[in-house]
Amino acid sequence: MALEAKMPVRSYLLKIAAAGLIAAGGYAALRPGTKAEVERIDFGAVRTPTEPVYVAELKPASDARIREYRIPIRHERIEIAPGVFYEGWTFGGTVPGPVMRVRQGDLVRVTLVNEAPMAHSIDFHSARIPMNIAFKTIMPGEELQFEFVARDPGAYMVHCGTPPVLMHIMQGMYLAFIVDPKDGWGTEADKEFVLVQSEFYAGPERNGVHLGDWNAAMDKAATHVVFNGRAFQYKQHPLQVDVGDRVRIFVVNAGPSLRSDFHIVGAVFDRVYPDGNPKNVLNSVQTWTIPAGGGAVFETVFEEGASGEGGYAFVTHAFADAEKGAVGLIQVGQPDLVASVGH
Questions:
Q1: Which CATH architecture is the domain 191-200+230-340 placed in?
Q2: pLDDT in tens, 183-235
């Protein structure tokens, strides 16, 4: 089906379902031996695992050229540090919300469903589209549909844009949207991960759940700075790779206000893509800063004789923020005493 098709999403989905193309679990499939042209995911039915940690490892994008996503907005209790619970406003029931991965040139169709008790919206940094049409606020019980072509590769932020935007982001309304270049990143990665840095402003408790502290957020006085929604989670459960692996990490800084100075202790980034153009790659980088609302792509090789078997901390090198939770570990091979690694 041509990417330029303008058939209304609802009638389009009905036609697909009638043809028997919607598979169980939310993915589209065609007859055996043929490629799926359409991938449909309902993030109300397919939820990102967060226990014992938010799943950071990525799978490649499918061969589908049309991507249809149903994204429910829900308010849920989330755990932002061991034993610390927070009033979360979420896309798909988790913070961050589910990772969305497409290829350059794919048609992306979004159905946003507000299942929350207040007004919300969504803003794709990757979309070239009138914001008054696609990113408008919808009320409880309403839904919104729009589509765009993913023209620009990169690691992008998606967030709620309903005023005050600071409040909606500090409560957890963000996710990572990855657009792979049409010809790839120029290297073959053995493992890929996504890390979304963000900060929380935990205020008073009510029934065991912390409310957001607006004044602390205005002062940028975060109580927690985290990767993938929970402080220090990857220290106890490191990211696992093998000796010799080329590892690609997509880092998005959801903020809402602090920068991310991304660094891996004991390694040097062979390649950093500050934007989605592989021709703009930087080589031999120690630390790269990502502003709030930005993203970048990092690669390093954990090769024997250099950054080989062992434990490697990944951090924001703004250490006042790292001390609040933005530290994790990469375990290469099967080293001893990974839990004793510093940082």
A1: Sandwich (2.60)
A2: 999 999 999 999 999 999 999 999 999 999 999 999 999 999 999 999 999 99
Q: Which two tokens stand for residue 47?
A: 């939820």
Q: Distance (Å, rounded) from C-alpha 241 to C-alpha 190?
A: 8
- Give the pLDDT confidence score for residue 254 in this predicted structure: 98
Buried b (16+ CB within 10 A) or exposed e, 275-294: bbebeebeeebeebbbebbb
CATH topology of domain 9-180: Immunoglobulin-like (2.60.40)
- CA torsion 8→14→19→22, rounded to 10°? 100
- Containing H/E element for 74? strand 66-81
Q: What are phi and psi of 145, to 5 degrees?
A: -125, 140
Residue whose token pair is 């946003």: 112
User: Where in the chain are all domains bearing CATH 2.60.40.420?
Assistant: 9-180, 191-200+230-340
With beta carbons less than 8 A apart as the criterion, state whether 165 and 119 touch: no
Give dist(CA 296, CA 4) in Å, integer. Answer: 29
Checking if the pLDDT of 279 tops 80, the result is yes
Token code pair at residue 311: 């434990």
Phi, psi of 73 (to 5 degrees): -100, 125
- Quick check: 71 and 112 in contact, CB under 8 A? yes
Residues 224/231, Cβ–Cβ less than 8 Å: yes
Residue whose C-alpha is closest to residue 42's, from 136, 123, 112? 112
> In the numeric block, which tokens belong to residue 84?
């610390």
Which segments of 185-268 are extended strands (E)? 191-200, 202-206, 209-212, 224-227, 239-241, 246-255, 260-264
Round to whole Å and give the CA distance between 99 and 3.
Answer: 22
Bond before 52 cis per omega within 30 degrees: yes
Distance CA 212, CA 206 (A): 11
Q: What integer is the mean pLDDT of 90-111?
A: 98
User: With contact defined as beta carbons under 8 Å apart, do 102 and 152 qualify?
Assistant: no
59: amino acid identity, one letter: K
Q: What is the mean pLDDT of the chain?
A: 90
The pLDDT confidence band at residue 73, using thresholds 50, 70 and 90, is very high
Q: What is the pTM of this model?
A: 0.88
